[in-house]
Amino acid sequence: xxxxxxxxxxxxxxxxxxxxxxxxxxxxxxxxxxxxxxxxxxxxxxxxxxxxxxxxxxxxxxxxxxxxxxxxxxxxxxxxxxxxxxxxxxxxxxxxxxxxxxxxxxxxxxxxxxxxxxxxxxxxxxxxxxxxxxxxxxxxxxxxxxxxxxxxxxxxxxxxxxxxxxxxxxxxxxxxxxxxxxxxxxxxxxxxxxxxxxxxxxxxxxxxxxxxxxxxxxxxxxxxxxxxxxxxxxxxxxxxxxxxxxxxxxxxxxxxxxxxxxxxxxxxxxxxxxxxxxxxxxxxxxxxxxxxxxxxxxxxxxxxxxxxxxxxxxxxxxxxxxxxxxxxxxxxxxxxxxxxxxxxxxxxxxxxxxxxxxxxxxxxxxxxxxxxxxxxxxxxxxxxxxxxxxxxxxxxxxxxxxxxxxxxxxxxxxxxxxxxxxxxxxxxxxxxxxxxxxxxxxxxxxxxxxxxxxxxxxxxxxxxxxxxxxxxxxxxxxxxxxxxxxxxxxxxxxxxxxxxxxxxxxxx
Length: 508
Ligand code: UN1
Prior knowledge:
Layout: H1 2-6, E1 12-13, E2 16-17, E3 22-23, E4 30-34, E5 41-46, H2 50-67, H3 72-88, H4 90-101, H5 105-125, E6 133-134, E7 141-149, E8 152-156, H6 164-175, E9 179-183, H7 189-205, E10 213-216, H8 220-228, E11 234-238, H9 241-253, E12 257-261, E13 266-270, H10 276-288, E14 298-304, H11 308-321, H12 340-356, E15 359-362, E16 366-367, E17 377-378, E18 381-384, H13 390-393, E19 400-406, H14 409-417, E20 421-422, E21 424-428, H15 432-439, E22 448-451, E23 463-464, E24 467-468, E25 475-476, E26 485-493
Parallel strand pairs: 1-5, 8-9, 8-11, 9-10, 11-12, 13-14, 13-21, 14-19, 18-19, 21-22
Antiparallel strand pairs: 2-3, 4-5, 6-7, 7-26, 15-18, 16-17, 20-24, 23-25
The protein binds 2-aminohexanedioic acid (UN1).
């Protein structure tokens, strides 16, 4: 396991860090990391104690005082160097993502590329933290707005994108002048250590203070320390809707800010006027990619009745050809699910579906062939369903694709929007009216809406996130940076009088 060594990972890894310094070697409580490939243990990470946590927050507060006064383009230069360092470690980190999380190596590499891309984006953004200049109604007055950093940005991320989601938040927050405290998923603690080690090299080279990029490790309790902590003005959380509700409640109660990126229940409408072959390929990537464990995974297909059977058969053909196996092998397209709980929830969903009257058209079984040790492997499933069934309304984090029939386009849109989540969506059609209807105010109600492009695999340049129960947060590109800053409106009087706004006379 050469790549582990190259990423600085060994037997027991201190799970708390303020930058270059790591703490926790004496801690008793440890988190063991197992690869879902064959369930063998990779290494341990110590769990952050409350004492260590307070030390991290205090160090971060101190670092913020310095970091906020570093000119934004200079902060951008640090992020540029992090991007270069990530390029050096792309293969090793991609391999670790695959090893610890189970997505195929191509996707592991893609995830690190997403980190590199957001670094590049953030470097440019660091010169573009634009505020507006307004026309004052008072003579010789100038009005403008400027953006200041918030302070500590708490980042809580999930197992399925163990490194990229952190960097969307951290790199943008960093150029904005914030300091970061990151708690990743307890299912992927080593990815956090590896990223922290990579960033530490840049911090050292630039002689930066401790406390800008901080890492803590632990479960829900550690997350709650963050959400309850008034010293953390912004919490950006990615995970389940249930988790998001808790975070919103706790942070909201102390009037803190949140960026929530929660579950999706993403659908593709396939029109009778679609390029069906192109649609089938996009559907396959969206539904079986990352073994159905992206928040943007394609879960529902809403298919015009005239092409329903044809598309169903084509998808079965494609699914039959998909290699399931060790995600480190080059010809594998589908690796394992993250753990046994995920396997069980997939089986539960399929049973519920059958009870409702759904038909499993293909796949769904657990695979325990000898060459697939670990019992975390499943065959992706294609099933027929009705949109209103309870199980279809839920996000099951596994490769189940629900096929739903429609007759007219308005009905397709109603079905499409007829779920609580609102993350990503697509229509496959060559019909201009259908495409534009889908993109219009009466079309898709999601944060991401595509035409002839699947639901997953978004580029970092756009704002990423969704509506309704998906939580409303936006991360990554466009003007998502504003959520990491506070806006200040400034009025400057350079006259020798004191006129009041709204023409009010107030003689004293
Ligand atoms: C996630 O699953 O939490 O659009 C993020 C995509 C990726 C990000 C997914 N760029 O599928």
